[in-house]
Amino acid sequence: MKPMKIIAIVCGVVAAALIGGVVIISALFDGARIKSELAKVVMDQKQRKLDITGDVSLSFWPNVAIKTGKLSLSERNSAENFLSIDEARISVAVMPLLSKQVVVNAVSLSGLKATLIKRKDGTLNIADLAGAPAAKETPTPAAPLQIDVASVKLANTQLTWRDDSTGRSAVLSDLDLSTGRVLGDTGKQTYVADAVVFSAKGKSGGKGDGKGDSDSFQIKLDIPKLSVSPEKQQISVGTVALSDVKLTLIKRKDGTLTIANLIDTGAAAATPAATKSPQPAPPMLIDVAGIKLANAQLVWRDEKAGTSTALSNLDVSTGKVQADTGKKSYIADAVAVAATGKNGTDTFELRFDAPKVTVTPDKAAGESVKLAVTLAGTGRNVALKLALSGVEGSAQALKIGKLALDLDAKANEASVKGQLESPVAVNLT
Asked: Distance between CA 343 and CA 261 in Å, rounded?
């Protein structure tokens, strides 16, 4: 028998076996039974209702995958909805299945909606899902988990945060996330993700009743490689873009700031563990190709003084930004800031440009810095241009190779107009 004929027969037998296996597995796969058993397990172990209204199906092309339609998960011991998903798909590699290993190829979720709640007693509504042990139980260390996922995709996601103690809420909507390969080792606590692309719209600060100040923003992130480890965290980012940001910062009559709600540690400060010296954060290396902030609006309001300052049409852009938190060094190229604003009845415009800014614990430097400000108010107008070159500074001294000032100011009948050029050297000790 000719070799080619033998190969053809072997290939035919293998193909027939594979097709037969697919047919048998498909016939034995019972989606309805899987749905009922999953719902029972979740109810028995977590006291939450899992409702899978869509079909649970098994597919073999282009890879082995389990796909579900619409599903929802309730709050613990409640009919209130915690999470819902329009569609989920998890695909696995075929060959590892032969050695009884499961290697996830891709995870895809569409239409995910979830609400995270901080209750008035400080607990979270996901504490039971996180598997937190009871207070008297000694937690058993989990076996290290190796993570290797070819890709992750989230589409049309909405995440809501609600703080019942303050009545504040925040929402991320239209959230899309995609990644390349994701690797992780829970034992070594090392994680690497390639080609992370993230975009979302956000709104925070409101009390959920449409009243009160609320902040909003749009964000886009492009991260070619993200690496995190206990020793060193590395973030390499393509472009960070934010647009239509609206942020209001209020100083209340008692002197507290509205932003304090975001950084308040609450009852944790009273726990014995909180009295221990905090572990220093691992150094982080950050490399950003560029930052763009467009059409932002920032408002500062002092309720006690009854004053407010607003920045509108705020645009900020940079070239490459590098930071090393371990060495406390920061470098930014092509920094540009432009904005219009209002302080009381006065209006102003400002523009700031710096080709390169370097900051280290020992010194700060800039190749050149340009600032232009115009102010218009009742009976007064000011136009100021300031250019600095060869800027070097430290905690002890400041040196400017050349300072050029151009001022044109008028207040009622008085006016000042002039120019100044000079090097500057200041001893700060």
From this structure: 26
